[in-house]
Fold this protein.
Amino acid sequence: MLERILKLEEAKEDSLFLWGSRQTGKSTLLKMLFPDATVYDLLKSDVRMALQMRPALLREECELLEDGELVIIDEVQKVPALLDEVHWLIENKGLKFILSGSSARKLRRSGANLLGGRALRRTLFPLVSAEIPNFDLNRALNNGMLPRHYLVENPSMRIQSYIGDYLQQEIVEEAIVRRLDSFTRFLQVAALSNSEIVNYTNIAQECGISSKTVKEYFTILEETMLGFYLPSYTHVIKRRVIQSPKFYYFDVAIPNHLLKRVPLQPGTDIYGHALEHLVIQELRAYLSYMHPEKTLSYWHTLDNKYEVDAVIGQAEVGIEVKSSKIVTSSDTKGLKAFSEEYPDAKLYLLSMEERPRKQGNIEIWPVEQFLKRLWSNQVI
């Protein structure tokens, strides 16, 4: 069994929400970390129906527990009314809760009690390189980093089923969109725009829907944790920058399987986009697990001359990702321009070169070696 980095040690003192996309391993992690906890699994239809019909049943059963005991409610978004009972039990019984789920959308839209700061928020991401013995970069780029996908030779059918389950369970069951055909088309067009600056007008024209609908669809992807925005770094010194965010699917394999672009071929533009996506995915998880106070963004000048793929914190670190086997001076121009604006920033260029080296104030690292340094806390 793979050992996950997220340990949820906060649960010793506090209640918390644990969010994560489907199949990231939330239930498995909770069983491993808290084998003695009382568990309500709302994927079980009998448990869910009983609590839907009578949410007070949770309070009545938990009143028998000792003060300070831990209760886990898995897929809590399926019965939002339980949060009022959880609130009461935290306040009056002193119980601690871990409330896990794959989407906060239903809770927010239903006006559910989000416990008013009484529960911390943590996120479990797909696997990261540091959790995988003998990590294989090409396997990660083609299979993605969900445990069920990375660990098999050919996950294509599993990934297609995953996307189908998402459409069926998150979209159809909750009647989130009126036309599933237009939303399905949007998923493919959004895959074409993956890791790119979002242009709602262009995507709307491609899908044959309004820009407003496109924005709503992106919000759905974000709230159901199938995708995320990477904001622009906008603390301007001299150069004006683009303000719009980039969009990424939550896992590197999703866009290429939506577009049937696998297997990826090294040296192609598509491979380079996937490599950038994977690095962003790792950085996002690392900061959430290790440095939740730090932000992740990108930097792109308004004249389109210069770009840096990832900026950590207040321009503390700038990272550019290239799939080149030999880094040239043109590959470093974005980082050089960024350094002129933010001279104190640590600069990294990640590539497919075999050995690390330094060019001026820019460190050039093979991607896999950089990821090892990242998770060893040698980057920040």
